[in-house]
Design goal:
The chain is an all-beta fold. It has strands at 3-7, 10-13, 18-25, 29-39, 46-52, 56-59, 67-71, 77-82, 91-102, 107-113, 117-122. Strands 2, 4, 5, 6, 9, 10 and 11 form a 7-stranded mixed sheet that branches. The protein has a 4-stranded antiparallel sheet with strand order 1-3-8-7, with no helix packed on it. A hairpin with a 6-residue loop joins strand 4 and strand 5 (46-52). The N and C termini lie far apart (40 Å).
């Protein structure tokens, strides 16, 4: 069974830092693409950052220069270092990954989602 598990959320003050982690299990590899989305109360889900094969990264304009996405050594883990947090960063942060699941008789590649970790930034 494929699972993406996030951790690292919490309540912090404006200007503080947090590091989110996401680990994928039950997959062969998620090397092609992993990313972070967020959804604030009453708002649509928005893309925060992605990292693709070869460590090519993308950031939303709202987080450029403050957030850094990276992978773990096994490439089925990703991190989001968030610095200089602002109240408008308050949201549930969700891990997303395009992963390959290979068995003895099949191979499937598709997107998977974690359940999210809550980040609250107080002013």
């Amino acid at each position: 069974q494929v699972q993406l598990t996030e951790s690292g959320g919490g309540l912090v003050q404006a200007g503080d830092s947090l590091r989110l982690s996401c680990a994928a299990s039950g997959v062969t590899d998620c090397d092609s693409k992993m990313g972070w989305y967020r959804q604030a109360p009453g708002k649509e889900r928005e893309l925060v950052a992605t990292i693709t094969r070869g460590n090519r990264v993308y950031y939303a304009d709202s987080v450029k220069g403050r957030f850094t996405i990276s992978r773990g050594n096994n490439k089925n883990t990703e991190y989001l270092q968030m610095n200089n947090l602002k109240p408008e960063d308050t949201a549930v942060y969700l891990c997303n990954a395009h992963c390959l699941v290979r068995s003895s008789d099949s191979e499937t590649a598709m997107d998977y989602w974690g359940k999210g970790t809550l980040v609250i930034v107080s002013s």
